[in-house]
């Protein structure tokens, strides 16, 4: 699946899932991702989908780029691909790439384009799922989540080795933080809905095999109940050109 297909099919789903997720002390994924970019004068949101990042930034500082410039999202949005950004060189102070890196086809071209449009000392923020268990709740689901993340990603290394990819592309990695958010799992219907939504949202592999989907739905349906949640670990990397 291309980055364009993800955005057309799953942009609104991504926003809905991220808004439902909650972390420690009531934290939310989108404001957490936006925090390193709050002082940037102009932020480019690559593969922006419906553009939830815009709501977490100061007014007038957000610009989206999307392969299909979807209707109904925030504005302004330019139509363009992540590896062919329709902007002049050194046009922005910050770039965000949320839940798209493991799916993009040419990471070398992507990082070169980001370097081109960023001004000197500009900030790049990347948000990716994490596949390595880091809490007791994640360890209890480790066999399931390992099976989920084992196949279906175009770039599996872009999950928990994003820092290595950035360093190899000659970016200075300033921070690599991990937070385990959670999604409500009140009943079996919610479990089945999450198994359908998470691949479309960029949080699980888009090409998850049917057999893995079925096992995941059955396992989460058995886990579901009042007060139950599904761990949603995310990594936020901050880098400079």
UniProtKB/TrEMBL annotation:
Keywords tagged on the record: Methyltransferase, Transferase
Listed GO biological process terms: methylation
Pfam families in UniProt: Methyltransf_11
MF GO annotations: methyltransferase activity
Signal peptide: none
Organism superkingdom: Bacteria
InterPro entries cross-referenced by the UniProt entry: Methyltransf_11 (IPR013216), SAM-dependent_MTases_sf (IPR029063)
Occurrences of domain Methyltransferase type (ranges): 44-126
Protein's UniProt name: Methyltransferase domain-containing protein
């Amino acid at each position: 699946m291309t980055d364009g297909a993800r955005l057309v099919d799953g942009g609104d789903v991504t926003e809905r899932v991220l808004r439902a997720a909650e972390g420690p002390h009531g934290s939310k994924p989108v404001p957490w991702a936006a925090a390193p970019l709050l002082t940037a004068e102009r932020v480019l949101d690559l593969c922006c989908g419906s553009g939830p990042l815009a709501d977490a930034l100061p007014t007038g500082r957000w610009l989206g780029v999307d392969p299909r410039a979807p209707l109904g999202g925030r504005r302004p949005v330019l139509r363009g691909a992540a590896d062919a950004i329709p902007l002049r060189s050194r046009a922005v102070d910050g770039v965000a790439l949320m839940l798209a890196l493991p799916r993009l086809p040419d990471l070398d071209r992507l990082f070169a384009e980001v370097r081109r449009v960023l001004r000197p000392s500009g900030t790049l923020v990347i948000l990716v799922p994490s596949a390595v268990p880091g809490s007791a709740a994640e360890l209890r689901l480790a066999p399931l989540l390992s099976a989920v993340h084992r196949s279906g990603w175009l770039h599996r290394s872009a999950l928990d080795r994003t820092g290595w990819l950035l360093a190899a592309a000659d970016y200075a990695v300033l921070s690599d933080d991990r937070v385990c958010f959670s999604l409500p799992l009140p009943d079996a219907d919610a479990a089945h809905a999450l198994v359908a939504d998470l691949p479309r949202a960029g949080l699980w592999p888009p090409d998850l095999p049917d057999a893995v989907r079925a096992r995941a739905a059955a396992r989460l349906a058995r886990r579901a109940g009042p007060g139950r949640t599904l761990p949603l670990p995310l990594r936020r990397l901050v880098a400079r050109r």
